[in-house]
Amino acid sequence: MTASADSTPETTPIPGPPRPLPKAPPRRPAPAPTTTGGAGPHDTALAPAPAATVRSADAEPWGRVDEDGTVSVREGDEWREVGQYPDGTPDEALAYFERKYADLASEVALLEARQHGGGASASDLRATARALHAKIDGAAAVGDLARLEERVQALIETLSAASASEAAAARELVDEAVAQRTALVERAEALAARDPKSIQWKQTSADLATLFEEWQSQQQNGPRLPKNVSQQLWKRFRDARAILDKHRREFYAGLDEEHKGVRDRKTRLVERAEALAPKGEDGIPAYRELLDEWKTAGRAGKKVDDALWARFKAAGDALYSARVERETADAEASREKIEAKRELLVHARTIADESDVAKARARLTAIQRTWDEIGRIFPRDKERALDDDLRKIETNVRTREESEWKRNNPETKARANDMTRQLEEAIQKLEDELAAATKSGDKTAIARATEALDARRAWLKAVGG
After folding, report:
1. Assign residue 19 a region: left if phi > 0, alpha if psi is -120 to 50, beta otherwise?
2. What pLDDT digit, counting tens, does each position of 122-137 carry?
3. Which pLDDT band, with edges at 50, 70 and 90, does 434 fall under?
4. Is the pLDDT of residue 28 over 90?
5. What InterPro entries has UniProt attached to this entry (predicted)?
6. Residues facing residue 19 across a β-bridge
């Protein structure tokens, strides 16, 4: 069975060890002719020629095929057996191993293209090149294997330098990533080191979650850190999270206990407020006291607080609603009273025209008595406005009474008479001085006497003289 260009022979060629180039087989003399008795002319018989090495004309520089199907490749001055192909022609045998060489050459060309194209890791390409170099060395193929090895070796040297630069850049990236990851750890540890009593847990939990998201992002998108460094940093970050989580649980456990106490206190306040409902408006003072207690009771959590406050407020609204109902009824009942007091005010304002103070007082007293008999008025602001108007009239009468009393008081009269006498004497004296000054034409004395005389006359008028 023979191997075609597109198929592998069923009989796998057997590779063989390298061996020296064979020398040409020695020529042997032709056999001597043999004479047999009774024969005619001499028949000459030639001996069979020795087996010759079969070679392909196209692959002659690099490969050959022996008569037994052994295929060899030339490497320098030696031939190395690469296998056997006993079931095919020499051309088929060489073609098979030339395809093996072509496959290796394609791998070399592809690796060169990847190196020139960029984008691939130099260290990865170098590892591939080294593997390919080992694959070419001693390969069962026919072709210029030495040239392939030279090309691959050149790639290895180029990629080694690039790998060094790549490794340095990678170390810089790793160092930067370690610094960034360390900064996250230190921020987490700073949060964990704070006093649990002063921490705003909602904000702190959000901050820690943000740090963890940044950690995950760096872990997924950043360079891989050395295992020991990564584990140490993660342990620190995890420990900081554990501390914060422990403090948070303790805080909320204490808060729950505190909320329970506040909830119990406020529940009792609600029950006491609801018990005031039968008292109506009269329960408002007690409700206000409960409200003061509520303000100092503390917080029981938003949902619980809102629910309890709704009940507490509803109890107060019922009490104040009773007041509103009563005030509405009082306001309706006060309409006639308001009109009656307004009429009294109209009469009271005429007291100012009464010259006799005693009669003015008598009229005012009668009006005040009727005013009180009419009773309270609602709303209170209207009552205050009417009372203010009446109070002005009362003040006017009281002022007149005080003035009248001062005038009729004996002591006051005596003092007034004495003052009048003194002023009259002073006026008489000043009039004499003015007359003398006028007669003498002394303008300064005239002015001084006139000024003093005017002042004394004004005083006399003031005391009723």
Report:
1. beta
2. 888 889 999 999 999 9
3. confident
4. no
5. DUF349
6. 79
